[in-house]
Amino acid sequence: MLPRELPRDGEIIKAVATCHSLTRINGVLHGDPLDLILFNQSRWTIDENCGSERSDDEISRFDTVQPTVVKPPPEDVPIFRSSDFAVIRQFTFSSSLQRMSVIVNSPVEETGRKMTLYSKGSPEMILSLCDKTTVPDDYLETVNKYAQHGYRLIAVAKRDLVLSFAKAQKVPRHSVETGLELLGLIVMENRLKPQSLPVINELNRANIRAVMVTGDNLLTALSVGRECGIIRPNRTAYLVEHQAGQLAADGRTQLTLRQSVSSSEDILDEQLNSDPLSPELQGNYQLCIAGPTFAVVCHEYPELMDNLMTVCDVFARMSPDQKQFLVNHLQTLDYIVAMCGDGANDCAALKAAHAGISLSDAEASIAAPFTSKIPDIRCVPIIIREGRAALVTAFAIFKYMAGYSLTQFVTILQLYWIGTNLTDGQFLFIDLFIITVNALFFGAAEAYDTLCSKPPPRRLLSPASMVSVLGQLTIMLTTQLFIFVWTSQQTWFIPFVPSPPDEEEVKRSQQGTALFGVSVFQYLTLVAMYSKGSAHRKSIFTNRYLCLTLFVTTVASFYVVLFPADWVAALLDYVKIPDMTRIFVVLIAAFSSVLSFIFNQLVVEHLIGNMGARWLKQRRLRDPNAETDKWERIMCRIGHDVSWLRKSVRQIGADQASIKSGATVDETTPV
Question: Which residues lie in coiled coils (predicted)?
Fold first, then answer.
């Protein structure tokens, strides 16, 4: 549309072309994306060179005030009666004020004192600053009509000023942003990015709640929320509102509800003068609230905050502090919060969230730990999948290392009973060849392609993790103890005799060889069991390096246990046992592995992981205030007992070393 076709000869275009914070960097305009779109649509140009391109000239004028100059297209110069306009003063955008303003010099005035203030911002805020005689009677009705259909609205106003250049640089903002003349509304179609709906649906399928927090109009946010799937079509949406000065019976500000009709986004006329979180609203529903009402709830209805956070999915007209408060309060409700944002208003919330994701390279990227190279929310499922896979892998490595340590611990404990230990060669084969080589590629599994509806455990000392580790310890202890006793009852068995104190210590024993043969396969069982694919990781067969190392170490273990050459036996420094006994040891190890997999699949994953989770969810629904840290205290106690047991075993070893060397033992030493 041409300027001459607009009211006041296109004065609103002049406001759009001057009221912004754009700047030119290396010849390219940078700034707020919305300002950039509006400025480009105006077809005006911006000039910050002040007539010189030399960098040394720019440096020499660094301390001087050089206003930004904007110029209309040549064909529109007669309409605007000037070829350039100088922006003398800029009042930057503030979320709390919901507006920005500029003071523009009118060059047609010979005295240079005639200036114009242009202001743009939210329709509600500009309305409060305008002279009511310049505002049409159907202003709010028009705003609501467009907002209900998802359009984004910006109100524009002006005020003529008579100021000197020096006074324009010092005049307070509040003294000029008053008594404005409304120029009109800029209506923009708030098109949803095509990637948004599939991402929101994927999050919904995974039972991950999506919440919209925006500075836009409440009705606009509600419309976009329905379009992108945050407000579900099978749920009823209510607007939580308040009327300033209208008090309830208890003296607090009255909260009201208005129901939104999903088909046309119109708002029903009836109002429910009741608690918006009362049992009157049965079934599936979602709430939407604006920043001013949110502030009322925070200050006057703190007892409703927890319930509000769980059912309110659209927060509009939110200030940066309110966004940060929302993130912090969700975290107190035991939510894991990820936040997406692209502007300076989102920095505080991005920093407060567990995972802040910046969708731009501007200020938000400084505060957020993650910055997406694509300006949409496709990165959210990726970060969730990778984070869950990393968490599951870390817990699996913990269980693997804990299982390995405890398995070796029970082996050494049994050999201590007869006064010996594993040989140095056996220790090296286990620790260096089996454990370390497989651990190098344990975490190389990739994240699963889709999000799972069941989240991973959030605590390292969860019931499933501890039952898994302790259950595997019981199975492996029982198996090793059986082999230890069975070996001592064979006709070919020769009991171990400790070396005299004055001779070199010999650790080789037939029971040690038998335990070594069983334990190496138990370590491999732990690798295969804890690295298998889960709901959050791909299958172990996609981890080619781990499959290769697991195959090589398994073949080597079979060779060492069943068919060791003399030089291998000498290298590992162990006593050979009969062939049939070695085969029997391998069969017992295979039985132990099968039993371990069955226990992990049925007891840990099915009984505790699935049924236990359902029971815990039902228990929390029955008693929301139930104590949740009981298992943590139990696990801490178990950890204390294991630590005490480790110290006891080390003391036993030290005492045995003292006896062999002829030293005395303090009988009062606690063991």
Answer: none
